[in-house]
Amino acid sequence: MNLDIRSTILTLGIISCIAVLFFIVRAYRAMSRARRLPFYFKKRQMNARGWRSILLAAIMAFLAFFLFRWGEPVTYRFYQPTLTPSLTPTITLTPTITLTPTITLTPTITNTPSITPTPSVPDEILQEFEAIVTPNPNAVFSSLQFATKIDDDFQPVDPAIEFVNPVGHMYATYSYNNMLDGVQWTEIWLRDGVMVQYFTGRWEGGTGGYGYADWDPPAEEWLPGFYELQFFVGSDWMTSGYFTVLGEPPTPTATTRQTQSESTQFTPTPSPTP
Prior knowledge:
It is built from three helices and nine strands; from the N terminus they run H-H-H-E-E-E-E-E-E-E-E-E. By secondary structure, it is an alpha+beta fold. It has two domains: 74 residues; 124 residues, Immunoglobulin-like (Sandwich), CATH 2.60.40.
């Protein structure tokens, strides 16, 4: 019978426990007989045998504890464990029928992303650049928050991503750091991917803090659609924000003015008759 290391350690531990019980019983019997013997020499021999049995029981108990507690780790230091070979299946299932699709479905709708991964400054705006300060490559901007009102600390009041006409004055708030005064700064507003407003000039907001971009077109120009605001430092894109306008804009009402015109009529004076 082949036993592995774990089974061997377990067997030796069980045998040690049985030996502990055996020596305890033997010691008990020896000491019981010693108490009944009238002869001193015989009584001493039986007591000595009992104490030897107790000592052996203690040794076997320690051996059993050692085997159960540290037997396997110590054994594995001298005998490296070997992997047990796995069973290899002998039956191989071979499919006999292969279904070949006869109809190939061709997708008719192609999803085109509406957001450009890396926005760029249009050429007509690049021609207006006038700054000579090199942008700091470590400049960072937070995400944009849109609201129709801001407080004194340039923080948005009730920010949202959907607005219903009439929209009014739109603000985009943000935080920034590591900027340089004098670098070229550009803001581009787009509706459904088409530019509707832009600003470019020299940055004058300092190295870090809070800021906002705003746009206040006439009410009728807030057409429903998907709006985007892009920020650029030099020609490098920094961040973008998005919001949606719902509902039709208000129609401007024409005002009628009544104008009173004064008409002057000339009445000829009759000339005297000679």
